[in-house]
């Protein structure tokens, strides 16, 4: 189907667009009262993720309410561990919790590579419903976690400041770690391909815990698996967002992906110099900037747009939008990107 707004896709192809496209990581979620209303009708987060009609509804909310140039399918990166045999719970105000974790080879033996049509059909189904209801208004982004980030949750069993258990495993049982990472990678490739077959126009890989590994370990235990994913996904453009992976950024030139996400600690001119025309860059306003007054948001947004320049940039925050941000401020950021980036071209 022909998209009415294909700014995101044209930007990813390197075309000179009339303005910069903008969306927000974690836009489908708690900042919107409309999301919370749907969420309250359900028996929990996991149930909402598994309900294609409701998932489609909250996926489209930010398109209608905030005016973003892309939708991102409402789901979670933790559906992969669940389909591999480690179910998760989402504990209110605390985050994910896994009743069972991976601590030994025997624990890995009990896992399987995810069977997408058997256990994860709800995401492709939600994508089909969303595409139908979006009716070509904006492109739809599919996503998955990077194998290292998924591994970190499966071994730790919850969020953590240090993720010391998964990091310990890299030193104590590196071969075991590789076995699990490969199973996650195979599951993720199949999952992303199913999302693409269902209609995802772009896919993004979130490596939220990239920043806690050394450069050497990141290359061995994360980037090598992300590279396999990028090589396997040939149908649509891939975006890789590796939060905190500063020292590994030079290695990302070699990835078979169109776009790299930057967090707000990454220096824009330095990243432009590193990637040249080779990669489209996405990001990277500090999510905390949206706590500021509108004059400050305007100034920060313009500074960011000036630093990236008009083309090969997808405006976004440097990480997911914080849940207590006023949606009005998020909307202001989006409108400011639209207005100023169009002005920049005249
Ligand atoms: O709008 C979107 O971006 C699509 C939806 C989306 C969710 N999670 C919904 C969600 C996406 C892309 C994710 C990705 C995700 N999930 C990541 C990678 C991005 C990042 O922020 O680094 C990670 C690490 C997770 C794991 C996860 N899910 C955590 C740690 C938590 C709890 C903390 C938090 O941010 O809330 C979740 C819960 C979650 N995922 C919520 C939503 C809307 C909130 C729970 C709720 O509504 O009850």
Describe the structure.
Helices cover 48% and strands 11% of the residues. The chain is an alpha/beta fold and 346 residues long. It has a domain of 230 residues: TIM Barrel. The strands form two sheets. The protein has a seven-stranded parallel β-sheet. Strands 2-3 form a two-stranded antiparallel ribbon. Helix 14 links the parallel strand 8 and strand 9. It is globular. The two termini are 31 Å apart. The protein binds coproporphyrinogen III. The site of coproporphyrinogen III has 21 residues, from strand 3.
Order of helices and strands: HHHHEHEEHHHEHHHEHEEHEHEH
Question: Residue ranges: pLDDT <50 for 5 or more in a row?
Answer: none
Determine the fraction of residues in helical runs and give it as a percent range: 40-55%
Q: How many helices does DSSP assign?
A: 15
Distance between the termini: 31 Å
Topology of this structure?
Elements (H helix, E strand, L loop, with lengths): L6 H6 L20 H9 L3 H5 L2 H14 L5 E2 L6 H6 L4 E3 L3 E3 L7 H5 L6 H4 L2 H13 L5 E6 L1 H10 L7 H9 L1 H25 L3 E6 L7 H18 L5 E5 L16 E3 L6 H8 L4 E6 L8 H15 L4 E5 L9 H18 L2
Parallel strand pairs: 1-4, 4-5, 5-6, 6-7, 7-8, 8-9
Antiparallel strand pairs: 2-3
Helix pairs in contact: 4-8, 8-11, 9-10, 9-11, 10-11, 11-12, 14-15
Bound molecules: coproporphyrinogen III (CP3).
The site of coproporphyrinogen III (CP3) has 21 residues, from β3.
